[in-house]
Amino acid sequence: MTVTAPAPPRPRSGQPPRPRKRYLRPEALLGLGFVLPVFLLFLVFRFGPAIVGVLLSFFEYTLGDSPRFTGFDNFVRMFDDPLFWQALKVTVIFTVLYLPLSIATSLGLALLVRRSFRGSKLFRSVFFLPVITSLVLAATIFTWLFSSSGPLGKLIGDSWLASTTLVIPALVIVSVWSRFGYGMLIILARLQDVPRELEEAALVDGAGPWARFRHVVLPQLRPALFFLAVIETTTSFQVFDLVYVMTGGGPARSSYTLVMALYDQGFQYFDLGYASALGVALFVLTLFVALIQRVLMGRSK
Amino acid sequence: MTNALRPRLGGKILRGVFLAVASVITIFPFYAMIVLSLKPVAAVEFPRSLVPWPIDTSSYDRVLGGGDIPLWTLNTLIYSVVSVVLVLLLSSLAGYAFAKKRFPGKETMFWSFLAMVMVPYHVTLIPLFVLIAEAGGVDTYWGLIVPTLANAQAVFLMRQFIGTLPDELFEAAKIDGASEWRIFATIVLPLCKPILATLGLFVFLWHWNDFLWPLLVGKSTDMRTLTVGIAALQEENVPLNVVLAGATIAFVPIFAAYLVGQRYLTEGVTMSGIKG
User: Which portions of the sequence form the region Disordered (chain A) (predicted)?
Assistant: First the structure.
């Protein structure tokens, strides 16, 4: 395909250029041609499935059968389903523990490696290593660390993952370990933009380290922290790999998350309509929390 | 005055201690993974199990000797490398068009890409799987790879980057009579090297570490990727040293990629917030 673009046709004087004509230019065809492959893939594998995913939540559908429209039945069933409420509870508790802990860890370490000193680069590299490690690998080794044979299990004299109360904290710890390096980098990038003069002025005015952090640095970090909060909330709502490998949702469903429930309904029981309804619930929950975060963010300005 | 914000000696020591402890905690799981993979089957009791000597490589003999791990490694490699090449090609073409071309529907298309980022992946998962299953894509490489090529983040990144390149570069080549393909291949792509390196590394990591999609599509043992295979080994109560030998093997390429491309990865995060 060798297309050379000629100069665009000049409109005759006094007449506005006709917009249709513009679209026929080779440049436009070429632009379309360059975008089309991705766009078609997008239509078929993202956009289409998203719409069908919402529609399917109003159907009863098992793989191989033809879908049967059932209105809001899946949602009614969901509200009566103790497993759904359990999964929602676990997901929310997980997020409530994970979010502050991961952001605080990221923030603390970002502040510590902020100024360059001998070894600061090495520390940053070390802290980013878990981010690029697969959650499945993290899960296999942490399963042992938390087991009654591993150091963390020995610490409390029992396996964390067999305890209905300690299983979520254990999953939170692994998640924080695997994600804090990402948040640290996001915060570090923003910290570089905090004007030095501001901090020095505060120092001259006699502000201690805490006051400088609280009144000079923290306000500048707000957008970065907001961005992180949104990203990490989504991440923790969708927690799956760790749960699947480390606990399978147990013991006694005490680590059964929403995506775990979706996976079970969809791919263990092939109840695809109900699984789609769970997907919609997850979507609504994500939007709802994003909205709340937006409002809080707007108010604190 | 410029050094006024530097911590004093006490502060420096405190900072050093904190960072050292945090580093040890960060590294410790990797250390445990490698050391335990080099222990005999029964030696899992802490703390004895974390003494590095003596080394016992029987787990690696078992894993590399005939088991499934070499095949799973090959599957993972195909999944990752083919996806990287195709995603880079598709997204740089689209990014170039979105940044530098005018065509009908451009804004609509671009905003629909943006909007889809808001929709959680799991909403699309069920229909996506049905689609691939009905089309005969279960247990095939194409079924694994093709749906992941619709990568909105990659298109955004390429559009952002190419948008910063000066138009004069392309105009000059056009006046010289270069075809659009030639401009794309000899001007756009070479200028995009840094962003292609960053994006390529991230796409590689995403695919190498991906779990849920390969778990659904790779039904037979032969079509598993490393993450799916290692999870299955763990589930089947295969001895810990063997599971962790597999995990260590899966970790080596990631670590190598990190050593080579760390700068591109960290710059990718700090410049664009691309998700690790």
Answer: 1-20
B70 shares a domain with B49 = no
CA–CA min distance A300, chain B (Å): 23
Give tens-digit pLDDT for B114-123.
788 778 888 8
Reduced to 3 states (helix: H, G, I; strand: E, B; else coil), residue A88 is helix
Residues B208-212, mean pLDDT to the nearest whole number: 95
Indicate yes or no: CB of B247 within 8 angstroms of CB of A231. Answer: no
Q: How many domains, in total, are found in chain A?
A: 2
Report the alpha-carbon distance of residue B150 to residue B147 in Å, rounded.
Answer: 6
How far is B210 from B226, CA to CA, in rounded Å? 9
Q: What is the mean pLDDT of residues B144-161?
A: 92
- For chain A positions 199-258, those within 8 Å of chain B (CB to CB) are 199-200, 203, 227, 231, 234, 237-238, 240-241, 244-245
Residue A105 near residue A179 (C-beta atoms within 8 A): no
Q: What is the pLDDT of residues B17-36, one digit of tens each?
A: 999 999 999 999 999 999 99
- pTM of structure: 0.90
Find residue A59's DSSP bridge partners: A69
Cβ pair B122:A1 closer than 8 A: no
Would you say residue A120 lies in a domain? yes
Domain hosting A58: range is 19-75
